[in-house]
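Notes from hallway chat w/ T.B., transcribed later so I don't forget. T.B. wanted the structure written out for a chain they're using in a teaching module, and asked if we could keep both sequence and structure tokens in one place. Agreed to drop them here.
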Amino acid sequence: MSDIRTADAMTVRRDDPDDVVARLEEDIIFGRLAPGARLTEDALMSRYGTSRHFVRQALVDAERRGIVRREKNVGATVRFYSAEEVRQIYEVREMLTRQAALMIPLPAPQGLIDELSALQRQYCAKADVQDLRGIHEANDAFHLALFSACGNPYLVRSLQDYMNLTLPMRAKNLADREGLAQSRRQHELMIELLKGRDSWALAQLCVDHMQFSKSDYLARIAGEAGR
């Protein structure tokens, strides 16, 4: 396991707990802190320019979200998923995604097309300026709007839970030039397929859409294990 580096330490003190939580979450989900990295309180205080109280509060919140693991006599580390855990989690997410996509009535209402097109424009605008937080939020908004069209809020809630669970695995993909370009193209194609009648093509595209991030995370943890 690697320790976090303090060379990036913030010089401005930040005592807003939400800000500390957000910065820690971003560093984890965008890959600045690798899976398995140790998260010592002193290093985090230096990195974010904040107090021990707010660092501890941020770690508790991050543990609740599933991106940090805290263990007795070990301390806090960035949540690490084994290759088998990643495959099993994505198996469930893929099943939920396929079912939700198949349940979307086609051709989709113009209102849904317009909503997704507007969200896609927001997504592209954030991507153009490399606003990672904005890219992540616009991406999730796009997918939740898409899957909400399936008409089953319980299925959508389950999908959202698995989107959150895979956040550390998939968000780094949004900071990758190749992965981001592919994501943008696939969003556009999803919108086009919603105008037709091929539910199976839409469902398969939605499943294919998540494969790049899964493969990337598996490669990252394999590289960490190799080192």
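Follow-up for T.B.: Confidence is low (pLDDT under 50) at residues 4-14. Might be a good example for the class.
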